[in-house]
Amino acid sequence: MSINIISPTRAPETAQVVPALPQVMLEPLVRATLLEDLGRAGDLTTDAIVPAEARGQTRLVARQAGVLAGLDLARLAFRLIDPEIRFHALLADGARLEPGAEIARIDGPARGMLTAERTALNFLGHLSGVATATASIADAIAHTRCKVTCTRKTMPGLRAVQKYAVRVGGGSNHRFGLDDAVLIKDNHVALAGGVAQALTLARAHIGHMVKIELEVDTLAQLDEALQAGVDVLLLDNMDNDTLREAVRRVAGRAITEASGRITPETAPAIAETGVDLMAIGWLTHSARVLDIGLDS
Asked: Coiled coil where (predicted)?
């Protein structure tokens, strides 16, 4: 069986344009995931039932509304299993999907298509879920200058691609690891002996290119941090009135970032307090998979 090749279309104008991750970053992840699935004997079911010479064609189709992300990983899963499989993308990451939207057409050796299917769908469904969750917040606060950002609460091994999906969904990234910025939290403050002491120790340890963020729970801590000097203030679990007062006191001297149980329903009022950012961990650690399937 074969199909006519359809040239990929551009993503809709509403899509978030985000540079693709280099394949050299993606291939080890996809390869490891395929090897995990193949185990020690390969695809017993497909190899037993599907003739080696059989060819097939199928389509990636959205079964829910959402934001597409992870297309390169899905494409790579098929290619690594069988380079003869042809993957014809019809949309691009960042496209807004409606139920029934055709994402890609795939044709080639049937065995390879079936073997790669689950890995491709796992990546595509999960990352589209992350992008969709991010978009639910970004859309809710679009009338403000506030931006949604993720955290380090990512699934092991998936941080780079999950943070990519956050960008695709219209969000921005917090630090990628412990080594690219300083984030002083309550335990650090307690062990250092206070806010000022923690900031002094951190500043003496880092280079001039590294920013310092400090988590504060009260306005008194905020005032102490402002006096000592800090780049970013993480305003943790503050009510909206306190957030508003915190923004007033900061007066542009530092970036303000709200955190704590933020949902699409609560996000607009939080953004309207004037904070610059809102950090949300569930975008990556608890995002619901977007239902995408392979249909004939």
From this structure: none
Q: Where are the domains of the chain?
A: 23-137+288-295, 139-286
Told to judge if 261 belongs to the known catalytic residues of this protein, a careful annotator would answer no
pLDDT tens digit sequence for 172-207? 999 999 999 999 999 999 999 999 999 999 999 999
Catalytic residue among 72, 215, 224, 276: 215
pLDDT (tens digit per residue) in 22-45: 999 999 999 999 999 999 999 999
215 a catalytic residue: yes
The question of whether 163 is a catalytic residue gets the answer: no
Q: Is 248 a catalytic residue?
A: no
Residue tagged active-site, from 102, 217, 231, 236: 236
Q: Identify the CATH number of the domain defined by range 23-137+288-295.
A: 3.90.1170.20
User: Is 236 known to be catalytic?
Assistant: yes
What pTM, to 2 d.p., does this model score?
A: 0.92
- The residue length of the chain stands at 296
